[in-house]
Fold each of these.
Amino acid sequence: MPELPEVEITRRGLDAHLTGLTIADAVIRNGSLRWPIPKNLPKLLRGQTIRSLKRRAKYLLMDCGNGTLILHLGMSGSLRILPAGTPAEKHDHFDLILFNNTLMRLRDPRRFGAVLWHEGDPSQHPLLAGLGPEPLEKDFDARYLYQATRGRSVSIKQCIMDNHTVVGVGNIYANEALFRAGIKPQLSAGKLSLPRCTKLVAEIRATLAEAIKLGGSSLRNFVNTSGQPGYFQQNYWVYGRTGESCRRCGATIKQIKQGQRSSFYCGSCQK
């Protein structure tokens, strides 16, 4: 599933090709995504100029002047920039056609993605209104994380994957950041000291920044807007490495289940 780095890489790729351009048309081939694509969306988009493309958590927000196009990649989605007229394939569900003879195409084999429309402040959309701070912005700091974890018995891994605590720290990057911070994933969030919160915040930021630099992780379907995979998976310390030797101490990487998700950790390096 695309996580924050993959969505940010997609945003940057789209931004370079779309911002400032005018929309000629939109094509809905299959509107039955996680939430139905509004049937009147082509009418709303025709003739609108794309003013900006921002990211909030794992959502892409395209300011079209009269409203905001909200995009989500779901479990298997990708957004590509292609020449206008490129034949659609089976899982190509939505096209945004520009007047410069290019298009933006959503491919989503599992159809868990989203193409939604919102008029007014997009931060007030029901999917965005209750979200926590961005992990790469100043509002997410050690003091904030320390206060947010007081009295909480849930594991620290589940806590940082909760979008009400901090957005966009998905399973891959939660595992990797916790290893780098030396914190075991099953530790109760409320037991985290302020110094350990400081370390964890720093490693969440560093892990996400490195993943963005390396083009994200391409474990299944993810490709960037040019169709190229990411390479961060080559640098994993623990994720998906069950039974292998820890690259830092040589101990065996362990795997457990937490909240229906797999957690990977080194019992020697993480306490």
Amino acid sequence: MNTPLITQRYKAASSASRKERATTGPVTRGFLPVWTPRPSFNVSRGPLGIRLISMSLAKKNLAEPAPEPRAEDELQLAFERMIEPLRAAFEQLPLQDYRRLKEAEPLDACMTLLQRAARANAQPRLARNLRAFEAREALTREAGGIITPSELAQKLGKSRQTVKDWGDAYKILWVDNNGTRAYPRCQFDAHGQLLPGLDRFLQTLARIGITGWMALETLLGVDPKYAASPLELLQQGRIDDALTCASALGDSGAA
């Protein structure tokens, strides 16, 4: 049986080598020439290709979101916004106040400017908070500074949990320092031990609701009857007199 002509032509074309099929010219195997595909059109050739590339880049740029600002720029803007009230308060300072701020510590000067800014912008709550902060800073300085729980535990040779338990039982005085406990240094003697009678004094105050910063203020405040503070009385060993000072606060409150 004779092979059909179309089948013979297909076999002739498929038997061509890969190298021969890759040529761009005609291959004359069999009865019909076999043409290989032309290379794809390069759009970058000629003015039309350049226009097409420009249009595609323009569309890509329009589709892409605008670059976000850098974190450093955002921080700088936030800082400028925060210090603007301080700058305004500084520019309105009288000459004598300016001279005092020039000689003051930087943080103290900032606190003064904050108070003026709070009054200028009618912020009574902020002004009250600043006054309370200043009072606490003054108490901290008068108490000889504060000590952290870790430092105190090492100082006393106890665990932090033991120190915390003492504070909860009002055997030792602690104050809230921005959400953490801190212990005034004034409640220790020259040997680093708690003053005798301090626990009884603190517990007497706690029974009438005086704890934390109020207890420290009471400990450092001068009692008119003895012309001395309860701290000085405890340091002199006059425990009963110090307890009398604490009890007197409860009696005056009840009256």
Amino acid sequence: MPLVKAFAGLRPVAGRAADVVAPPYDVVNEAEARALVAGRPYSFLHVSRPEIDLPPGTDPYAPEVYAKGAENLRRMIADGVLARDPGQCFYVYRLTMGSHVQTGLVGTASVDAYDAGRIKKHEFTRPVKEDDRVRQIEALNAQTGPVFLVYPSDSAVDGELARVAADAPEVDVTARDGVRHELWTVSDAATIARLTAAFDRMPALYVADGHHRSAAASRVCAARRAAAGGHREARSHDHFLAVIFPHDQMQILDYNRLVRDLNGRDEQAFVAAVGAAFDIEPAAQRLRPARSGEFGMYLAGTWYRLTIHPERIPGSDPIGRLDVSLLQDHLLGPILGIGDPRRDERIDFVGGIRGLGELEQRVDAGDWRVAFALFPTTMESLMAVADAGEVMPPKSTWFEPKLADGLVSHVLD
């Protein structure tokens, strides 16, 4: 079974992509989703966040929500807004955010490879979110939210994608956030065969984002195989919808921290405690770390540069060397008493897309006492953690730009 496989995508017909494409379901809340669909009856949020078409306060995990999503998808097909390609295709997908450009492949990735660890994970999943994605796939009989995968940059694949993207795109849409989405269809059998073979030669792919979607696809596949009596005839549920980018084109932004109090210390005592593991110096302006091991701290209206003492950085531990780990292990945990950042309500996380001004505003408002700006985790660090079979600390990576929902979906047979 191929690691990555072409498929007959369900996608907007010519001229309708702008009516359909929407942000990923998990980056907008219900109120934001309701606002975004105003005047847009074919926005894919009607499929991915169907509670917006039900009374406010509806439980997003209620059976009628999944049923409404399936109804909306059928309506978009019946109205001729979405149609399925007649043959097996790959799709080249380019995202442009300001000066940043990344070009990848839309295909379907092997569930068996995922289960065997050849498609590598780096996050824990939450059962409630897995269950939600399983119910969504089953209700729609389709995978509509692509899993964001990364491959180690490969000249054969990179070259094929660049060659296809040299032509005019079939889809060219700029979303409300300013991100440009372009799509090309690859239906040529020879190109499909070359791309399939190139991916099959790769030792591994990496999940960048979409751990719940990939885990849900694995569960759906297992359930359908069991229902078929264990027969292993190839079926569409053997693969899951994915967008795969080369690792050296990824843009990971900082994922910053806010803490509600100083754990019983006054400011002077807190700064003194921090000095046990970090060099501290005031900064004249907002401090965005320039390298690993450097942190910005905003406290009482002042920015500080924190530089961890070199002897505190583990030599060979791929997790312990991460900036999120260094901050947690030498400051948030021992000094501020944040033992479990996944569950402690005294800490909050702010994606770098919001800027350092967001940290200042929230501290200055008085609800949060101190903020920390981190150097972004590198893709190489993420891959090293995944290769070691380990799990990243919570809120370690913030990928930008985000994929669009609705450009291509994978219908199950």
Amino acid sequence: MLSLSVGIYLFISIAIGLIASFRVRNTSDFVLAGRKLPLLLSGSVIFATWFGSETILGASSAFIEDGLLGVIEEPFGAFLCLFLVGVLFAKKIYKLNVLTISDLFRNRFGNFFELPSSILMVITFFGWIAGQFVALGVVVHSITGMDFYLAMTICSGLVMLYTITGGMWAVAFSDLIQSVLIVVGILLAFFFLNTDVKPVTELIAAAPENQFRFFPETGLNNWLEYIAAWITLGLGAIPSQDIFQRVLSAKDEKTAFNSTLLGAFLYLILAIFPLLLALYAKDLLPADTFTDTQLMLPHLVINYLPLWIQIVFFGALISAILSTSSGALLAPATIFAENIYKHYQSEISDKTLLAVLRWSVLGIGLFSLLMGFYQGNIYELVAGASSLTLVCFFVPLVVALWFPKINGKAAFVSMISGLLFWIVFEFMNPIIPTSIGGLAGSALGLFLAEYVLRMKQASSKLNY
């Protein structure tokens, strides 16, 4: 019955994509839902940006192993990202008449910035999407006993199908339904365990002393790692096409602002419950029940909750992953079509561009699936993607929006130097965390390049 229910839910998701396809008449409809999303739909897509596999499966696993300090990046850093986007970026971004973040970079810095930034941005999404595909495989394997790799392949194929057909309209409609399921499923599971099995207060009281430590112990290394955990998603995901696209889909500037903050606080509140469910899993399940702690919550639900709650919970879990997966697929496909393909094919009809968008979703999805086969840790896949975005694009985005006098060449140096510092710190394994080193390298590259360019300009004026 549980397997059948999950199958029916997946079928409904495909149906939503097919129905939404009737609203797709051009690339704006496919990419931004025609910029027509009201508060409820817009808030749902913002909330669903982050509430996926890493929040439910990855963070709960990390919480059991390392306590709250192990989940600073997700969910707390992810909330910080959404909050900052709402307060500082949403209105400013919405005013821009662009489809992608690379369009902003091209308009502000020039054509020479567009292609390399677009290629790097597309690359950053592969790990993110792969993490969602791995999670889908984990969930379906846990429910049905199907081979993990087969389950991952089938589920990722379904995600690609309904994203290809309906674009952002499919994402919006499915996110609304899925957000309701997520809220109901997570809360039902928690309240049943809290009332019928054991009060959560007893588990909190019995938890190890460091389980709920929110600040690190003294020591420079500990604090550097703590800061890195906050900024990897907190700042690194801000210049992401995924969230950029969802903000631009709102019907107006005010809705973009309100829906982003609504999604942020809804996310933070609900993200606490998977951590509490993880405490139940640790307390109730024998240590040898599972070899992978990412499977804790599925095992907990199957063994301790009644069938009807299992159906709702796994529907909610699959909902969360589908929501994140579809939006994550659409974002790099948009960049590829708009900023890489069009870079070489400037004379292209809207109909052809729409076809390229759909083929791009398929190609990026297949590559991410292969990546998921070789790296099965959800949390690491997601964290790696956000770290690269942070070091390459956060400083250029801030410059593009708030510092109009800074030269585009300096921003380009910032992007490249951030990437190079990130690579060096990644392989040298120094004391300073990779994300901090890369971000510092990006800022240093910007200041040095801008200083050199201004000195050259001053010298030219004197010679003239």
